[in-house]
């Protein structure tokens, strides 16, 4: 994941900004008292990208991956809509309780840019994605960097068209969505009114995407490590923030770990899960990895 990559991450202030003033309000009014549901995963299960994660001789990478993680941020579905039988295979080879968080096809976000044809593409995407059944988590839609507020009418139309039975999260990357206060408030309220998640992206070169504005009782975080010693302390800070949100009523945590070079994503994820278990008293399975532990480097 090269978005937000910088040459010298040691120069970046990775401090998590304060909560947006409306975030505690959203959590308070949407809490039900249910136990917090937590899903942590990587972005892919491809062996070439995740060296040393799979035991030697592993024949089915997804089958093994799903014994270690309870979810996957499924980026493959951004590049094409797979045949129906592929979604059924993914569903059937993963254990009960496992969730896929698939990325919306780029035909909607990048090629059609939410025009009329994009609505048709979304329908085709949902027709097969629905085959994941009870293993379908939140679908996420990531807009192009140059898709700015001048396209507001398209966003409204898409949001109103979206079938509400499918949970949706949206990621806007054009800086004007967040640096223009009036635009930002309109966007946040549109998402909140339609029960759509406002995605948080923690990456080195785009700190403006850390708007810390939740729009429903769900934190969908895409964390991008910089292949740098700062990756672990940054995860510690996220543990503290998520714990704070949990005390306010947060009931859904969806946290996906990337790196600019996907070498240690499973290791970072295992560290995150271990610390999350300790802080929140949960009992998530800690992924096994053949990579050596890096924890001592950051004590």
Features:
single chain; 299 residues; alpha/beta; TIM Barrel; 4-stranded parallel sheet; 3-stranded parallel sheet; 10 helices; 9 strands
What do these coordinates show?
- With 299 residues, the chain is of the alpha/beta class.
- The chain has one domain: Protein of unknown function UPF0759 (TIM Barrel).
- Helices cover 36% and strands 14% of the residues.
- The chain has ten helices and nine strands.
- Helix 9 packs parallel to helix 10.
- The protein is globular.
- The two termini are 27 Å apart.
Secondary structure topology:
Layout: H1 23-30, E1 37-42, H2 61-68, E2 71-74, H3 84-93, E3 99-102, H4 106-111, H5 116-129, E4 139-142, H6 152-161, E5 168-171, H7 176-179, H8 181-193, E6 197-198, E7 200-202, E8 219-225, H9 231-248, E9 252-259, H10 265-280
Parallel strand pairs: 1-9, 2-3, 4-5, 5-6, 7-8, 8-9
Helix pairs in contact: 9-10
Protein name: DUF72 domain-containing protein
Organism: Allomuricauda ruestringensis (strain DSM 13258 / CIP 107369 / LMG 19739 / B1)
InterPro entries: DUF72, UPF0759_sf
Overall shape: globular
Order of helices and strands: HEHEHEHHEHEHHEEEHEH
CATH topology tier name: TIM Barrel
Could you name the CATH homologous superfamily?
Protein of unknown function UPF0759
For the largest sheet, list the strands in their spatial order: 1-9-8-7
| Distance separating the two termini | 27 Å
**Gyration radius, in Å:** 18 Å
Low-confidence stretches: none
Mean pLDDT: 93
In CATH, the architecture is: Alpha-Beta Barrel
Total number of domains: 1
Write a brief structural summary.
This is DUF72 domain-containing protein. It holds the Pfam family DUF72. The chain has helices spanning 23-30, 61-68, 84-93, 106-111, 116-129, 152-161, 176-179, 181-193, 231-248, 265-280; strands at residues 37-42, 71-74, 99-102, 139-142, 168-171, 197-198, 200-202, 219-225, 252-259.
């Amino acid at each position: 994941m090269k978005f937000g990559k910088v040459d010298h991450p040691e120069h970046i202030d990775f401090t998590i900004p304060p909560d947006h003033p409306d975030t505690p309000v959203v959590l308070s009014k949407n809490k039900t008292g249910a136990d917090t549901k937590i899903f942590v995963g990587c972005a892919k299960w491809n062996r070439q990208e995740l060296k040393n994660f799979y035991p030697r001789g592993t024949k089915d990478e997804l089958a093994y991956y799903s014994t270690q993680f309870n979810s996957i941020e499924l980026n493959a579905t951004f590049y094409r809509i797979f045949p129906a039988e592929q979604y059924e295979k993914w569903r059937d080879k993963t254990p009960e309780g496992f969730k896929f968080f698939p990325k919306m096809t780029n035909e909607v976000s990048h090629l059609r840019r939410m025009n009329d044809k994009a609505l048709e593409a979304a329908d085709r995407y949902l027709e097969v994605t629905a085959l994941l059944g009870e293993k379908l988590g939140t679908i996420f839609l990531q807009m192009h960097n140059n898709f700015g507020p001048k396209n507001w009418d398209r966003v409204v139309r898409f949001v109103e068209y979206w079938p509400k039975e499918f949970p949706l999260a949206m990621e806007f990357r054009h800086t004007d969505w967040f640096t223009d206060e009036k635009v930002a408030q309109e966007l946040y309220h549109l998402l909140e009114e339609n029960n759509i998640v406002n995605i948080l992206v923690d990456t080195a070169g785009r700190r403006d995407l850390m708007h810390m504005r939740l729009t429903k009782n769900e934190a969908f975080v895409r964390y991008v490590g910089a292949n740098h010693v700062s990756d672990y302390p940054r995860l510690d800070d996220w543990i503290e923030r998520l714990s704070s949100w949990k005390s306010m009523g947060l009931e859904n945590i969806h946290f996906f770990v990337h790196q600019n070079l996907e070498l240690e994503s499973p290791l970072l994820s295992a560290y995150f899960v271990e610390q999350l278990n300790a802080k929140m008293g949960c009992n998530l399975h800690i992924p096994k990895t053949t990579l050596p532990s890096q924890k001592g480097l950051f004590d």
